[in-house]
Amino acid sequence: MTPQARVQAAIEVLDLVITAARANGAPADRIVTDWFKSRRFAGSGDRRAVRDLVFRAIRACGDIPASGRAATLRLAQDDAALAGLFDGSRHAPGPIAPDEPVAASGVAPTWLVERLGQSGIAASDAAALLERAPLDVRVNTLRAGLAELPPGGERTMAPHGWRYPHGTRIEDSAAWAQGAIEVQDTGSQLACLAVEARPGESVIDLCAGGGGKTLALAAAMEGRGALLACDADRARLSKLAPRAARAGAYDIETRLLDTGREAEQLADWRGRADAVLVDAPCSGTGTWRRNPEARWRLTPQQLDRYAAIQARLMDIAAGLVRPGGRLVFVTCSLLDAEGADQAAAFLARQPGFVAENPALAVGEPRFAGWRLSPARDGTDGFFVARFRAV
Known about the structure:
By secondary structure, this protein is an alpha/beta fold. 38% of the residues lie in helices and 17% in strands.
């Protein structure tokens, strides 16, 4: 592909990404991959160049752009070389008209920027939400020693954490193939430490998803005790079994839950758990480094729905914790509606619990919890709160 053709390809992909964002369709990663499946003529260099341009444009636009061309022109305004590729030649985008619409720059849609500011995220810190994320891994102590770590990594603030540059092909390594490492952001690793899961305990991961945090809890428990991984999404939960086998975490029980019947289906665990992790569904504002188009999908109404789900799950979890046990609430969000406000509301509804400061290795207090952010801590954004049943 010529440089001009790469730009035109990026514009076409961006049109698909914008359409999907408006309809809550497929994520940008999948759209890029699918676009190239039917275009075998494109080489690996073409794929990398187009992908890079697509995600640069996504990061550059605050509000959802009118079109892929408008998004790409946002970049071209500050990049003369890119602007010069709009020359109308074969497979190239047409020349830029003087009055052509250009997408607006910014961190996020205006309402969302305001919410971040109200949640104590300064404009300078918010900009870090759109930087490229490194690749973090957790050394799996259940498989430690099976293979050497890939070269090029450096230690993180997590006890078993290592960081590699963006784009590292970690899944090609022997350490990954043998289960000696798991891909997991350092902030996520630290959030798991707040659970303080110990060997011999009874622990529930109430919103396990694909099981990334479940595997960290299993390693902390050293294969001893009872660990229950639950989720209402069959497809996501089904990914845990093969991951657990590779990681050597053989004692995890999984349970598929029906939305609205969770308490009934977990009646056998009522008042038994030493710890319950509620890694609740959320807006994902703390993960924009990895999913920058997610900020175009979120609406105030969706945020309210997430907050309602989080409150309901926390109340379900409260009934599962034994006296003296722990409930840990986690969201990958920097919005108080999904963090500090949720923690305060939980304490008001559940007088049988008190807040404890998780005091993680990095981050800072945020009312009744703890917050990690890309700008200050170099991790994904997280809110973590720990409560103890009294």
